[in-house]
C-alpha cells in the first residue's frame, strides 16, 4: 500500500497577510492607473474615473470583510506616493476605506446579487453603492483638504463634485466588470462569436473616430453601446462603456476632438456627463435585458414541466381498467 503524504496547509495568519498584500497591491495599481488620466478643473487636479473604489467594492462583495485591511493599506500607499502623510492624508485614507465598506453593507442589506441579473441589483449598485456611499469618501477627502488649508474654499464645490463623480464612476464601471470576470466562463462556439468579434471591431474602430472628430458626435456612441448591452448584456455593455469612457478621458486630456476649445470646467462637465450616461445606460439596460431573459427561461421551464406532467397523467389514465362486469343485456 502506497504511503500517503500529508501536505500541511499554510497557517491562516500567513494566508490573510498574503491576501491583504495582494488586495493592497491591486488597489495601489488601480490608483496609479486612475492618476495617469488626471484633468485640471478650476486649478485643481481631478480624476474622471477612480478605479480603486470599484475594485474595493468588488473585493468586499466577493470575499467579505477580511479585505478591509488591504483596502486601507492600498489607500495609504496611494497617499504616500504623493509624499509624506499628514493628518489630512490619514483622514482621506479613512474616508476611502469607509466608503466601500458602507457600500458593501448597504448592498448586502438590499439583497444585492453578484450576477446583476435584476434591475433592482443595477439600481442598488448605482444609487447605494455609487452615489450614496461615495459621499463619504468625497466629503471626508475634501473636508480634510479644506481644514488643512491645502484647498481654498472657493474651489470647494467643484473639487467635491469631481471627487464624488470620479469615485461613483469607479463603482459603476469597474465593479460590474470585476464581478463579471470573476464568474466568467467561455461559452460554446456559435454564431455569437462572430457577432462579438464584429462588435469588437466596430467599437475599436468607430469609437476613436467619433471621439477625435472635430464635430461633436459623442451621441453616436450610444447606439453601439445599446447594441452591446442588448445582445450580450453585462459581458458586452460594461466593457464597451469602460472603453468609451477611457477613450473620452484620453481625448479630453489632449483637448482634442469633441473637447477642443473648451474651458477646463466645460471639459470636466461634458466628460462627467458623458461617462455617467454611458455607465447608467450600460448597467441598467443590461440588468433589464438579463431579467427579462431569466423570466422567459423560467416560463419556458414551467411550460415544459407542465407538458411533461400532463403527458404523465394521460399515460396513467389510458392504462386504467374499465368497470367490472359484462354486458347487462
UniProtKB/TrEMBL annotation:
The keyword Cell membrane applies. It is a multi-pass membrane protein. The keyword Membrane applies. Residues 21-292 form the MASE1 domain. Keywords: Cell membrane, Membrane, Transmembrane, Transmembrane helix. It is found in: Cell membrane. Its main location: membrane. The chain crosses the membrane at residues 14-35, 55-83, 89-110, 122-146, 158-181, 193-226, 232-252. This is MASE1 domain-containing protein.
Amino acid at each position: 500500500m502506497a504511503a500517503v503524504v500529508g501536505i500541511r496547509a499554510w497557517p491562516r495568519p500567513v494566508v490573510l497577510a498574503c491576501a491583504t498584500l495582494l488586495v493592497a497591491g491591486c488597489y495601489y495599481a488601480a490608483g496609479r492607473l486612475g492618476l495617469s488620466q488626471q484633468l485640471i478643473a478650476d486649478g485643481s487636479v481631478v480624476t474622471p474615473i477612480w478605479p480603486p473604489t470599484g475594485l474595493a467594492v468588488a473585493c468586499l462583495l466577493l470575499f467579505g470583510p477580511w479585505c478591509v485591511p488591504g483596502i486601507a493599506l492600498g489607500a495609504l500607499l496611494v497617499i504616500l506616493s504623493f509624499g509624506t502623510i499628514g493628518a489630512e492624508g490619514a483622514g482621506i485614507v479613512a474616508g476611502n476605506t469607509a466608503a466601500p465598506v458602507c457600500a458593501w453593507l448597504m448592498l448586502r442589506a438590499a439583497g444585492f446579487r453578484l450576477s446583476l441579473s435584476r434591475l433592482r441589483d443595477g439600481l442598488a449598485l448605482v444609487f447605494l453603492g455609487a452615489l450614496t456611499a461615495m459621499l463619504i469618501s468625497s466629503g471626508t477627502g475634501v473636508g480634510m483638504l479644506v481644514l488643512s488649508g491645502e484647498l481654498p474654499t472657493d474651489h470647494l464645490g467643484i473639487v467635491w463634485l469631481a471627487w464624488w463623480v470620479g469615485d461613483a464612476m469607479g463603482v459603476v464601471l469597474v465593479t460590474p466588470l470585476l464581478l463579471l470576470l470573476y464568474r466568467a466562463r467561455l461559452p460554446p462556439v456559435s454564431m455569437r462569436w462572430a457577432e462579438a468579434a464584429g462588435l469588437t471591431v466596430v467599437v475599436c474602430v468607430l469609437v476613436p473616430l467619433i471621439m477625435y472628430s472635430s464635430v461633436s458626435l459623442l451621441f453616436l456612441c450610444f447606439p453601439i453601446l445599446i447594441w452591446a448591452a442588448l445582445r450580450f448584456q453585462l459581458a458586452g455593455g460594461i466593457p464597451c462603456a469602460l472603453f468609451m469612457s477611457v477613450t473620452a478621458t484620453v481625448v479630453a486630456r489632449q483637448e482634442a476632438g469633441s473637447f477642443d476649445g473648451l474651458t477646463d470646467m466645460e471639459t470636466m462637465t461634458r466628460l462627467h456627463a458623458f461617462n455617467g450616461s454611458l455607465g447608467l445606460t450600460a448597467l441598467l439596460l443590461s440588468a433589464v435585458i438579463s431579467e427579462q431573459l431569466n423570466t422567459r427561461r423560467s416560463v419556458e421551464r414551467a411550460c415544459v414541466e407542465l407538458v411533461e406532467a400532463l403527458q404523465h397523467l394521460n399515460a396513467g389514465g389510458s392504462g386504467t381498467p374499465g368497470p367490472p362486469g359484462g354486458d347487462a343485456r
